[in-house]
Amino acid sequence: MLDIPVDHHSTVPPYEQLRQGVIARVRSGELAAGTKIPTVRALAAQLRLAPNTVARAYRELEQDGVLETRGRLGSFIASSGDPTSDTAGRAATEYVSVIRRLGLDDEAAVRYLRAALGESDPG
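Structure tokens predicted for GntR family transcriptional regulator (123 residues):
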């Protein structure tokens, strides 16, 4: 889920609010390189926007190098320009993907991560 508030009464167009929201989350590290984002239709329904509005934001984000579309696989957060951050982000994204495939919840994921960092026992 990509929870980005859009103020329908703002003078800033909704596509621009969405574009800026995604960029802000990428800069903050909330959206790491390699993170899959919702389809245009799914995000449009979630945010109650027209699909063309979301499509425009995605196109502009792709032109800005923030998103990359991988055909039928979908759209993903692209490289941030920092190879260390990108590698860490992709590793984190892959870790979450594995945890989800295994059917584990977020608490278990954090326990295993803390154990790997030497902070506690995953038991």
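The first strand starts at residue 36 and ends at 37.
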